[in-house]
Amino acid sequence: MKYKFDLWLTFLLLAATGAGAAEPMYAGYYRGTTMTNGLGTVMKSGIYSFTNISDAAGSAVRIAGPTYPANNWQKMAFDGTSCFSFFRDTTANKYGGKGLYNAVAISLISSNFDSGVVYTFTNWHGIAYSDPFYYGLYNGTAMDGPGLYRFDDPTDPENGAATHLFPTQTFSADRWSDVAVDYDRYLFVKTAIDGDAGIYQYDPQADSFTRISGTETYTDWDGLGAYVAPPPPPVATNMPLLHKTIYVILFGGQSNALGWGYRQYLLDIGSPLAEPQMDVDLFTGVAMYLPLYTLTNLQSGSANSRINSGTPQYPAITNAPVSRFGPELSMGRTVRDLIHIPNSKVAVIKHAVGGTSLYKHWLPDNTADSASDGPTYQAFQITVQKGLTTLRNQYPDYGIEILGMGWVQGEADAGAHSAEYQANLTTFIQDVRATYGSNLVFVLSKLSPNQSTSANYETIRAAQQAVADADPRVVATETIGTNYLTAAGFAEGGVHYLSASLFRIGQDLGNALIAASGLDADDDGLPDSWENSYPPGTAGLGNTPDADYDGDGLTDLQEYEAGTSPVDPADGLTVSIGTGSQVRWDGKKDVRYQTLASTNLESWMEFGAPVLLRDSNSIIGVDFSPYLATNRVGFFKLQVL
Predict the structure, then answer these.
(1) What CA–CA distance (Å, rounded) separates 608 from 627?
(2) Which of 395, 396, 420, 398 has its CA nearest to residue 410?
């Protein structure tokens, strides 16, 4: 006799993550007189690499010949091969003058050869490098004042593309003498001014420092560089299990993508988005109000966090950092609200940097190797890689599908390179698809006539529309009208959008992404790809989820969740009672099952461990006799996890 069991359905998804990063290497200037080699010979001053941060001298290897006197060569950055340092000779105009040098090759890298201007790094007291970015400790009064900055152009680190990291810390020169960044760690050399000298690791999330150099004080060292090779991209060793998916939105661009929206605006309009969205994840590659490279709930805080001089939109907000948002906030919320597929999640991976151009910072080299891509595009790819790895680690039961990419950018190209924008955007989309999926949907927000613009803005707008017209999976959303006003008259200026405008742009992008994705066009909770794998008129696109074409008692939605065929009446989730107290059913590969037992049909308890078939479909049997031995009556149910 056969009995139909209640259908409680979820699924297990397994995915392997990539290998961890290699062991770190360090470099610095040795200035002491006590370090000796294996023969007992005192080692000269100069550049040394080492691997043991708690015993630098014990693992040191000399990597450059000159002695590098301390009054001339200061601070250190390291990329695993080359070292970068400030040259500050005050007695003669040696080499190319003061500035940032490749210290091993003695070549000036902070000289703009087009203009002949050399950036001297006069107001900087630390330097680091982690491909493709430089990091520096700034002690001047420009930009946002003292602190740690990230930049990609050593000839002009104070330009609009420089990012102020961790604004709660000024990293003063009397306390912190250098910085090192090795892929995802922030290390600082601390003096003995108010505690133990040595190397400290900074935790952005906790806003705290931990000493990691043991008893090594680095008294005999000047500057610290650190390098660790990034891990390879994660490789899945198992195919995902059925129908449990994280739909990922990639998001990038320049300052309007980074965002200038105030959380206070969300509070003023009573928007639920003023609080973290527990059903959408966010991972960001730019440290603002939210921590860098940390999976969190979608919320305000991933945008510009500073207080500008001039007329603010919210005069009462005077203390930095400020929780602000970009279009990714309402875009992620809109996408989540429009996806009704069971057992699905939505995550946003964001990397946006103000002032960045498509002709330089985001330009791909159109090859599989990203080494020659623009520096911001390289950083974007690092953020995406880290984000995907983090999602796999956080949700090992889920597969990952990149649903599409949102793009808010173009202002930085509206100059001498505006005529190149259409070709550059086309190439960029091609490279993004080659990297993340050939069928990826790309949605962009056009520049707005409301922005304080030059005539070249119309050239960019026309180029954006032309790219969309030529590709059915590219959508350019419009920004004409009062819904897209800029902050003219406020400190953010006439190029950047008001909070309400950024909110609307995100909604537009979210709606466009879902419409173009073909994920679930009829909004019945069944992916179109699954429906269209069967002939129209059976479970094909257009059927309702409660249809039962094959008449086996399971709706199409239940068939989808159980991994059974909606067109085969013999293929359903049914169980049979065998000899004794054994219950059997036709198990499906990559579906996880749990049996439950009850004496009253009201309260249920798990009986036995979950069962998962990894190799092939097979008959599964569970013996309930131990349960019946202590209970006169037994009811049993099968649950799909």
Answers:
(1) 10
(2) 420
